[in-house]
């Protein structure tokens, strides 16, 4: 795929899965062997794990929106920086809903193969998000 095709794939994923809340479309974008590495100390998420993560974010932040700020494509990899905004209306990581509006960043690198995401590294700035929900030690 060309750089422009990979950028378009990323934009379609955000629009379809996040903006339209079509989690059934995840299989259209993630390969069956998809793995998402969010931490060097935890096992990667599978495609099913990613679906659960998406559903959890949507349940906690039903109005969540992603704005893609920057995309860099090289070969089969897409690196992108984005901003998520939403209102904490459901439980998140054991934190009861606060009604707090939050804004936090994401940094991700995705490897594409045959028009689908096969590997992904990175994710949201959870520490910043937790600070905004006032779930931190001071």
Number of domains: 1
* Unreliable runs: none
The succession of helices and strands, N to C, reads: HHEHEEEEH
Q: State the distance separating the first and last CA atoms.
A: 48 Å
Structural class: alpha+beta
Radius of gyration: 15 Å
Question: Architecture, according to CATH?
Answer: Roll
Number of helices: 4
Mean pLDDT across the residues is: 93
Main beta sheet, described? Answer: 5 strands, mixed
Helix content: 25-40%
Give the strand content: 35-45%
- The CATH class, by name, is Alpha Beta
Q: How is the largest sheet built, in terms of strand order? A: 1-5-4-3-2
What's the CATH topology label? Nuclear Transport Factor 2, Chain: A
Total count of strands: 5
Overall spatial form: globular
Structure overview:
This protein is an alpha+beta fold and 138 residues long. It has a single domain, classed as Nuclear Transport Factor 2, Chain: A (Roll). Helix content is 30%, strand content 37%. It is built from four helices and five strands, in the order ααβαββββα. The protein has helices spanning 3-19, 26-29, 47-60, 126-132; strands at 30-37, 65-74, 77-87, 101-113, 116-124. Strands 1-5-4-3-2 form a five-stranded mixed beta sheet. The longest helix is centred in the first third of the chain and has 17 residues, at 3-19. It is globular, with a radius of gyration of 15 Å. The chain starts with a helix and ends in a 6-residue tail after the last helix.
